[in-house]
Amino acid sequence: MRRYYIKSEPVGGKVALDKKDSHHALNVLRLAAGDEMEIVTPSGDLFLARITDDKAGVELEVLEELVNESELPVQVTVACGISKGDKLETIAQKGTECGMYDLIPVALKRDVSKWEGKKAKNKVERLNRITEEAAKQSKRLHIPPVWDLHSLSDLLHLAGDYDYLLVADEELGHANQHDKLHEVLSRVQEGQKILALFGSEGGFERDEIQKLQEAGFQSCSLGPRILRAETAPIYFLSAVSYVTELAKG
Amino acid sequence: MRRYYIKSEPVGGKVALDKKDSHHALNVLRLAAGDEMEIVTPSGDLFLARITDDKAGVELEVLEELVNESELPVQVTVACGISKGDKLETIAQKGTECGMYDLIPVALKRDVSKWEGKKAKNKVERLNRITEEAAKQSKRLHIPPVWDLHSLSDLLHLAGDYDYLLVADEELGHANQHDKLHEVLSRVQEGQKILALFGSEGGFERDEIQKLQEAGFQSCSLGPRILRAETAPIYFLSAVSYVTELAKG
After folding, report:
1. B64, B47 in Cβ contact below 8 A?
2. Do A179 and B226 touch (CB under 8 A)?
3. Burial (CB count <10 Å: 0-12, 13-18, 19+), residue A40
4. Are B105 and B82 in contact (CB under 8 A)?
5. If residue A97 lies in a helix (H) or strand (E), which one and from where to where?
6. In 10 A of CB B3, how many CB atoms?
7. Nearest beta carbon to residue A245 from set B223, B238, B246
């Protein structure tokens, strides 16, 4: 069934599609009064709705709330350094498919690429368009917001909001300490929040790792193979999904 | 330490680099007689070696075998339909990072893209170059071979070589049956072989699923969100790595 992401919450069980979606529903899909569709509200609820009026656009009445399990049982915030090329776009797109809750770009010392002024604004806008499109394609209700570029100290100010703070640190992989992620994922409870930070290609300076550790971040390895900057968050989210969605029984 | 992938096995503890690698070692890295390097043999063993002669190229003596844990404890063959654009390249590259053993492109009925004649040959050559480069970058010893395009019946002929046969089937995701992968991964033993088949964007025809099931393939879901064709194998390999490498204790 066709699904539309509406821009405002239903009032009194009624809501309208905007001009663009109305055009799509009426002229592309040829829906008409009496037809049903799924709507996702800005707060991420899913409803079955029926078209009541198709004259000046699509007006709908809400029929019932639908159960949807497309969101990870835990909230994972992906924070990542600024990599070259389109790597952040890959993280935005595939992270959304794999259940990422939101994405925070972070300026780290070893980043090869820098975002400044207008460029930062354009990049973030583009990443938000990517997560929106990917959320719709993967049938998620929640569209992961991409936040403005943070400094490392901005990020550290957010630490108190999370139950688990992790940093994916390649040097730990070298040291063959692979049990930290498992330790966290075997304890995590539904509804808890994880903040996971990933470096760019350049990784981290030791003083950044030290600041992170002082703020309560635990280093975790993602296995014995070196992962590219854009692959590491996908591996991480896949492991979270596997543990909390596939292996929960 | 610099690592070279040599083309022939050492004989009597001695081996030479080929012309290109010799040039790189001597003229780019400025190595000379007495310097040490790591070498990976065609059979995937890792050795420490020392340069004994640098006149007409690099000649080496093998010093000792090194322990390396960069290979997944289970062999995962990724078989996948022919997707559009560069999606198979993404699977080749990131699958290699995530520990894929080899890659089999399979022609499925709903593939949007077709490989025929010369095009198939070129595609497979290109994918082999990608897995080679990715294996070196992620410090793997084994370079995942990419096989020639298989028909579904070619693939079914290989089924007997594997301990587990899985097909990632989106319709199962819809039905909320998420426990099959966990069931398999909680039983799999070191050294066993998994063949996992993924559809292209178009997925599978029901008669293909039926043939697969008759050949012993089990359908498995990769969670409640719809994953793109190139994301599904990465999710799968990440889950295998998590279970067999990070959560094994």
Report:
1. yes
2. no
3. buried
4. yes
5. helix A87-97
6. 12
7. B223
Do the Cβ atoms of A211 and A197 come closer than 8 Å? no
Q: Choose among B187, B157, B135, B110: nearest CA to B4.
A: B135
The pair of structure tokens assigned to A222 is: 């993602």
**Tokens 């066993």 identify what position?**
B192
First-to-last CA distance in chain B? 30
CB B224 within 8 A of CB B179: no
Q: If 0-12 CB within 10 Å is exposed, 13-18 middle and 19+ buried, where does residue B204 land?
A: buried
ipTM of the complex: 0.86
Share the mean pLDDT of chain A.
92
> In chain B, what residues touch A181 (CB-CB under 8 Å)?
242, 246
Tokens of B242: 């998590």
> In a mutagenesis test of the A interface, which of B231, B236, B237 is the best target, namely the one with the most A β-carbons within 10 Å?
B231
Q: Is a pLDDT exceeding 90 seen at residue A34?
A: yes
Do the Cβ atoms of B242 and A182 come within 8 Å?
yes
Q: Return the closest-CA partner of residue A108 out of A174, A168, A162.
A: A168
- Contact between residue A59 and residue A52 where contact means Cβ atoms under 8 Å apart: yes
CA distances from A184 to A54, A107, A192, A214, B142 (A): 51, 26, 11, 18, 31
For residue B228, the model assigns a pLDDT of: 94
Q: Which of A69, A226, A249 sits opposite B179 (nearest CB)?
A: A249
Q: What is the pTM of this model?
A: 0.87
Place of tokens 């994405």: A103
Nearest by CB: A231 against B97, B178, B247: B97
Q: Please report which confidence band the pLDDT of residue A225 belongs to, taking 50, 70 and 90 as the band edges.
A: very high
> Given pLDDT bands bounded at 50, 70 and 90, which one contains residue A130?
very high
pLDDT (0 to 100) of residue B32: 94
Q: What is the 3-state secondary structure (H, E, C) of chain B?
A: CCEEECCCCCECCEEECCHHHHHHHHHHCCCCCCCEEEEECCCCCEEEEEEEECCCCCEEEEEEECCCCCCCCCEEEEEECCCCCCHHHHHHHHHHHCCCCEEEEEECCCCCCCCCCHHHHHHHHHHHHHHHHHHHHCCCCCCCCECCCEEHHHHHHCHHHCCEEEEECHHHHHCCCCCHHHHHHCCCCCCCEEEEEECCCCCCCHHHHHHHHHCCCEEECCCCCCCCCCCHHHHHHHHHHHHHHHCCC
